[in-house]
Amino acid sequence: MIGELAIGLGAGIIAGLLGVGGGVLFVPGLVLFAGLSQHQAEATSLLAIVPVAIIGTYRQDRYGNVNRADALVVGLLSVAGAAAGVALANALTGTALRDAFACLMVLVALQLVRRALREDRRGRPEHAGQG
Amino acid sequence: MRVVAELPPARLLRLGVIGTLAGVFSGLFGVGGGTVIVPLLMLWLGYGERAATATSLAAIIFIASFAAAVQGLYGNVNVLDAVLVGVPAVAGVLVGTWLQQRLNASVISLLFAAILVASAVELVIQ
Fold this sequence. Notes:
The structure holds two protein chains of two kinds. Helix content of chain A is about 80%, strand content about 0%.
């Protein structure tokens, strides 16, 4: 239980700090420290993301940064894709899914490096909590 | 909603494509899908980074909920773990946002990139 709380707090801090999503941290955290399978970790991460996205949206909306109509359309029209993505994940073996996820982590790491180099020239970032 | 009904068809189509791609990505990887949504909002709809990130977060509330519900049908969701991770994460995000004003983000980005790569290796070889 301490492991889960630490994953949440640590991932949340990094998400707020860097503007990367919680999911890319929740999933490996749940596999490595809570002993979940890759499939369970991904499914559980999705549910854990919801409160983080709600609070983030509330904060951003106060600054008028949220385009509500666009967000609603993107969100509602994601339902078929989300079902397909989940079906695809469940059609893959745990090993294949894990390896694909590891590639995603490296990709996010590269994005962070690129952004760090860009920001060194330009100053501070202004975004937080990409989900 | 009237605002939604008044969106031009071309915009609606682009938003639908973004939603679908983000949904697949989210469902497949158990993440929100911001990695897909933010760049596409900027590229296809002329969003600035701040508005793209904020709007993406709002869309993710729906996307992650849908994907979590479908994963629930497969019996993969561990609700207790989700609460134990999700609730402190909310507090963490608030701390992280506060820290963002006070730390050198570039150094942290690079450090964290290294941690991500190390975790990816750990995940594969465990």
